[in-house]
Design goal:
Blueprint: H1 8-59, H2 81-84, E1 93-100, E2 103-110, H3 120-130, E3 140-144, E4 147-154
Antiparallel strand pairs: 1-2, 2-4, 3-4
Length: 156
């Protein structure tokens, strides 16, 4: 009785089919990962903005203008430094603004070369999740070339 084995053609067909299936599945996982990163960014931004508001309620003023990627010491009892000082889920670093870039108070992301840098098209998707889909105005907006912030209070 002759031995049963797969021919080279049969093996190549199986490998080809697995390659096609992988080509279909991998981009879908990448899209899900990107959506997850945006959702995490929006959640973190919401948390940080609420903590800044809580600070304002207790202290009567917003936290000071911070150095990008560093938690202002005034917020250390409101936000864990390790949460604020690591790269955001979409790249860049967290930052607070006070009386700068045309707003009184804001918290957001500064794309300063840490991790990925996102463009206006990407950030508009986040704006749709948070606000009105227009980076020029509203609560979430582009304040400078590489800065996108949730505005806590407009400049007087």
């Amino acid at each position: 009785m002759p031995g049963r084995a797969f021919t080279l053609i049969e093996i190549l067909i199986v490998v080809l089919l697995l390659g096609v299936l992988a080509a279909i599945a991998i981009p879908q996982f990448a899209d899900a990962s990107e959506e997850s990163q945006r959702a995490t960014f929006v959640s973190n931004l919401g948390y940080f903005s609420r903590q800044c508001e809580y600070y304002r309620i207790q202290k009567g003023e917003y936290p000071p203008d911070g150095t990008s990627g560093e938690l202002p010491v005034e917020l250390d009892t409101y936000i864990r430094a390790e949460d604020f000082e690591r790269m955001t889920p979409i790249g860049g670093v967290w930052d607070t603004e006070l009386d700068d870039n045309g707003v009184h108070a804001a918290v957001g992301v500064h794309f300063n070369g840490v991790g990925n840098t996102q463009d206006d098209a990407y950030m508009t998707i986040i704006d749709v999740m948070l606000d009105d889909g227009d980076l020029a105005d509203g609560l979430f907006r582009k304040l400078d070339v590489d800065r996108y912030y949730y505005v806590l209070e407009e400049a007087p």
